[in-house]
User: What shape does this take?
Amino acid sequence: MGMRVRLDNGTQVRIRPIEPGDKPLLEVALGQLSDETIRRRFLAPKPRLTGTDLRYLTEVDGRDHYALVAVLADRPDVLVGVGRWIRDTERADRAEVAIVIGDGLQGHGLGTALGLALADAARERGVRSFTATMLAENTPAQRLFAVISHRLRVTHDGATDELVGDLAA
Ligand SMILES: CC(C)(COP(=O)(O)OP(=O)(O)OC[C@H]1O[C@@H](n2cnc3c(N)ncnc32)[C@H](O)[C@@H]1OP(=O)(O)O)[C@@H](O)C(=O)NCCC(=O)NCCS
Assistant: This one.
């Protein structure tokens, strides 16, 4: 199951929905992220992942919380990217999206591939726009969000930007 993708550096990955059994893979992958990548993803220093956190991140319902992982095609036990969206509790047609790619594979198109796949799944489940909070200086994340958005609104709030992107029909 899943979708095979070839990155622009030749690396072959497989993108598939997250599973409860991904807890150890996710824990290892998050533990290997650089401080800078952690800061960009969580807008805070390295979080201490509790068992509750890992359950929340991997035991998703696939409807209001949807998550995809990318693993190496020839090493399916190595997780190299994860992306998710969580539906807004007040506006059911909105969801907050977040993606993180392992440092060694950033900048080769994997974030874009995950973002587009997340957007497809979102549209199928009635989500019409994605929201995200990111550092204003985070050019790759800003560009990735622009690529998956049909129409984009950005609100500046100090060092961070609030983005709302309508998904293409
Ligand atoms: C942001 C992130 C998910 C993007 O994924 P990625 O696989 O590295 O990015 P891609 O290769 O798909 O490129 C996405 C865009 O950023 C641009 N980009 C990539 N690396 C870049 C860099 N170092 N400097 C400037 N632009 C860059 C790409 O050109 C592309 O834009 P384009 O389509 O307009 O050309 C990834 O870099 C990451 O995990 N960063 C740390 C965590 C984070 O910031 N998460 C997002 C918070 S919501």
Helices lie at 23-31, 35-42, 51-58, 110-124, 139-148. The chain has one domain: 3-127. The first strand starts at residue 3 and ends at 6. Residues 110-124 form the longest helix (15 residues).
